[in-house]
Each structure stands twice: as C-alpha cells, then as structure tokens.
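Journal club prep — side note

Before the paper discussion, L.F. wants everyone to see what a predicted structure for a comparable chain looks like in token form. Sequence:
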Amino acid sequence: MIISTTPTLEGHPIQEYLGIVTSETIIGANFLKDIMAGLRDFFGGRSESYERVLIEAKETALKELSERAAARGANAIVGVDLDYETVGESGSMLMVVASGTAVRV
C-alpha cells in the first residue's frame, strides 16, 4: 500500500478514486509515564515514553487506514492527514485520526 500526504503520486497515475477512508486510535498513557513526563517538563528534555506512545498511535492509525483502503480494493491512499488530540478527563489519552482518499493506481 502506497501512503502519501500529496494528492498525486509521481509516476503512478490514479486510475480510480474509491472514496474517503478514516481511522481513529485512542491510546492511554499510564500513571508512571505522566510522572516522568512531569519531571521532564520541570527539568527540561524529551519525554521518550510519550514519544513512543505517539509513534505507536500513529502507526496503528496508518495500519488501520491501509486495511480499510484495501477492503475497498485500493492499492494506495493519497492526501493523508493525521490529527492528534488529547482526550479523557485529565487529557491523559491520545487520539490520532488518519484520513485520506483510497485510490487504485
């Protein structure tokens, strides 16, 4: 599956547009990660534990997006957009929404 943020794929003319596909992933950050991130915020530096959570959520959203596009007969997705939000009572959960247009090239 070719996944691109651009509306076209160089060298791969789009033969058919199969519609918009979306996927949503919500992943929680645990209590220990919250404490460590708070310390990083206070003392400075990167929070590798939160970065790993972000990467996992993004990869899961893109995997599901690919599966939904493939179910429509697509072999590529163009115009992919990723949105990140925090959700939950204390904002301790991360939501990643991926969307794009399923196409056949």
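L.F.'s comment for the group: Residues 26 and 37 are 19 Å apart (CA to CA). Keep this in mind when we get to the figures.
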